[in-house]
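User: I'm curious what two different proteins look like when written out as structure tokens. Can you demonstrate?

Assistant: Sure. I'll show them one after the other, since each token string lines up with its own sequence. Here's the first protein:
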Amino acid sequence: MRYQNGGVTHKSIISQYILETMTQCGDVPMNRPTIADLAKAANVSVSTVNRILAGSASVRTATIQRVQNAADEIGYYGLGTIEARKQESMPSYRLGFLLQQSTRELYQLIGQKIREAAAGWRDARIDAAVEFVDHLEPENIAARLKTLGRACDAAAVVAGDHPLIGQAIQALRHQGRPVVAYITDQSASERAGYVGADNWKLGRTAAWFIAQTTCHPGRVQVLIGNHRYQCQDISEASFRSYMREHAGHLGIEDSLPTHEEPKEAHRLISKLLAERDDLAGVYVAGGGISGVLQAVREAPEERRRRLRVVCRDIGPETRRGLAEGLITAALCHPLERTSDQLIQTMIDAIRQTNDGVILQRTLPFEIITPENL
């Protein structure tokens, strides 16, 4: 008969003892590691190893991991049982991620990296619910965030900073569902945290690239998706700050909104290239890089050669633009590290007891040029 306890059968632990008895009697090779050998290698007691193998008592996940590492080192035959016991001891979280525009390859890539990070998480079982919102009206985003947040232990959101979204964040916080702002911060005081780049440094770095690679006088155009994205607004302000300080030979036009639409970005840059002979640089602070690249490809070769383009994402279109030499630099989030940090921040927000603490996690952005692509 087979009895179940905590997902590990008593049959498993009995089998372990039978094998060790056989070892002592000479029925199997004497050099096979025993439970005592494993306990010594892991620096734990024999009773602790027995509890892990039997699944009959609570043992910390970190201790089980140490025993598993030792078992792998000495070649202990119960690795499968130890792994199963570790999985059972882990806490389980359902985390929601509300991203934007399912049609954009960048957000699909971000979603993929989040899922990969969740699947490989070592200290907890993570159920990642990744959703995309295509209609970017604040009312729609707020409603979607509430629905997703209520079904999860914590949520992360990429969205413009708007009072309706702030109210959704507040409502979820009062229900014990913390919300972390991702890539672009929110002003809602009830947000649990922010994970993203230092956008002040990012904007000044974008300006440095354009200023240092443009010797002749000219004009520079900034494209933003929406002024309510804090990440774009802050980087635009610091971009202008650097230009005022260090690039007197370049003038900056008023920013133009693309509404995160490539077609609008294409229309704007095509018009500028047709009307202005002195367009020297374009900083794409938001979405629309594919439209910008299409407009640049359609321009005469001389215009393409003199134009400097800096953007802030590293989707497939950006990689193509870099490979063609049409983009001077891409300043972007390291997606693997950012995904890991986002999940950790959400778990920390769930576990924290001080509701007044906002977890600010800023990661260095990557700088990609045609030469290090």
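Here's a second, unrelated protein for contrast:
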Amino acid sequence: MRILFLVPYPTGKAPSQRFRFEQYFGFLRASGIEYHVASFISDATWAILYKPGHQVQKAMGILAGFLRRFLLLFSVPKYDYIFIHREASPIGPPVFEWLIAKVLGKKIIYDFDDAIWIPNTSEANKIVAGVKWHHKVGSICRWAYKVSCGNAYLRDYARQFNPNAVINPTTIDTEHLHNQVRDQQVPGKLVIGWTGTHSTLKYIEQVVPVLARLEQEFDFEFRVISNQPPNLPLRSLVYQPWRKETEIADLLTFHVGLMPLEDDLWAKGKCAFKALQYMALGEPALVSPVGMNTEVVEEGVNGNICTTPAEWEAALRRLLQNPELRTRMGTAARATIVARYSVVANRPNFLGLFN
């Protein structure tokens, strides 16, 4: 069997690629399956993609991506499956997907982990938002052999177009990457943590008043790991730039992890990835009841589901005061990930996409 992975970004760079399919490549090799990864964005373009300026270089990088996609069409026939993550090209109509499915007659496995059919314009992508062609998602679902969706909300959307839509959750490698557990009993300043990209920093704002009240009583650090620093009126705030090389060590500094969300259509497509990371490292997750969060977090067992400011404050207060509670919930959190959201647990489900 041969599989071609058509992906937006270079290997090892984007979280959605790393945690949805790249960590299964070893299993593919072990099963005697050949694969090739073809990214739209080159390493050079990735290095400047989210930096201000460089407009000419970015435009040239996009054009080069389209050229690579066109040339790749000549080698598509030799593959048994074409695994497309999110889209074959980041802008414009689904021309490549149509050619692959309808002209070349290949089996597409279409994978996504966000509500990408909904426009989600931000300062970083507003220039290309008008040509993103969000409504192409339904067409690609219709042409696909199977649709691999991160949660039930995404699967239900895809099933409007294709009955062969299945849940393939974002998973954690608990054996080789998230393979350590936070010791909640070690003395020292407590750390409430959040990790994510610039596009999700806005979700922190709802818990800022809660943290401001708590920092009047408790000596803790609110650590934010991201690719951009937040601007928050908190004296407890510590910014930690995200680095792949120290990702796990940095996350292990957390005692508790936060995942606040807004209850909108875009957030319903979220696959609880932040919570999965915290929990895999033995850290209780405090989450909003949005998207997949309520499937992953069991109230009072491996974390807390917080709707109101009072609930956020009460949950944080309990965990700040009680290391035994943090240990008990952290142990349950780790067990949840190993049993239901680990690479090993999901291996049959992932490989089943290609049956």
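A detail about the second structure: The mean pLDDT is 95.
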